[in-house]
Amino acid sequence: MNALFVLSGLLGCYGFITPQDASRAMDRDQDGFDYRADCNDDDASIGADTIWYVDADGDGDGALNATGTVSCDDLSVNGFVLTNGDCNDADASISPTATEACNDIDDNCNGAVDESEECQGHNTDADGDGFTEDVDCDDTDADVYPNAPEVWYDGIDEDCLGDDDYDQDGDGFDAVDYGGEDCDDTVAAVNSSAEEICDDGIDNDCSGTENDADDADGDQYTECTGDCNDADPDVGPFAYDASCDGVDNDCDGEVDQHDDQDDDGVTTCDGDCDDHNANRYPGNPEVCNYLDDDCDGYEDNVTTDVDADGYNTCQDCDDDNPEIHPNAEEIVDDPYDSNCNGSLDT
């Protein structure tokens, strides 16, 4: 009901209105907020709309001077708060209710830094370089402070990093000019313990010579002189690649390659059992010559048995006569060598 309508009714009936009547008309639930500001003028537990602030760091205070959100709803369930005095809403340790610490930070957001009594006498900046003694590694020298330009080899830690002033590249080796073993103190990959890299134009291990890699396997060849496996003395540029072991023994980029010395198209690693005889290789037809012509491990193992007496052509001295073979009985006074022993009638 409109408050003016209520007032008009009262005046119409009685001709006057008391202050109490006016108050009830403007604030029906008597919660102290008139109907124009009350989010629910019939419920005394609900008052005027409220300004809420985002609390990004969850410390109970919103960001200083932040623009709030006006709402009749309770936004605290969404992480909003009713105050906005946090001067660093990204750090929960900093807020108007925080305790000031001696750390060069305005912890309690009152605009002063380290103003507590216990901080007095702490964190002075004696050399006036803008860094107090708690972070300045030498507060008597204005050229020394965190991240100051470092002057190498002067014995002073200008940037307060605690580095070795004679090891500019941080590889653990001091420069040779100052008694160390680093011949280039601007490159961390160059020092007395570095591995020599072939053909890069740099003396990586500071030996005084480029491309002088160690000969680890003692075969007189290093990685820089063509040894493709300096851990195996049987592998090197002039090793004989004859072992058929799946290794590039002679470092020519090919594995188990052998010359085909008899030009039969098959090398030793391909199965040639006699690379000096062009008539012996896998797949070659077996002939009767007391040799393993097909390299299968057996001599004269032909399969032809013309007379079907159980003996092949190489075993049978007359493969057209089934009565003649190595196990036949010799017949006396006949003109045949029946048992193929090379003699007649014995």
Structure description:
The protein has two helices and three strands. By secondary structure, the protein is low in regular secondary structure. It has a domain at 302-346.
Count of strand segments: 3
**Radius of gyration, in angstroms, nearest whole number:** 52 Å
Helix content: under 10%
Strand order of the largest sheet: 2-1-3
The structural class is: little secondary structure
Percent strand equals under 5%
> SSE string, helix = H, strand = E?
HHEEE
Task: Throw out a few tags for this protein.
3-stranded antiparallel β-sheet; little secondary structure; 346 residues; 2 helices; disordered N terminus
Describe the structure concisely:
By secondary structure, the protein is largely without helices or strands. 6% of the residues lie in helices and 3% in strands.
List the helices and strands and how they pair.
Elements: H1 3-14, H2 19-26, E1 50-54, E2 69-71, E3 80-81
Antiparallel strand pairs: 1-2, 1-3
Helix pairs in contact: 1-2
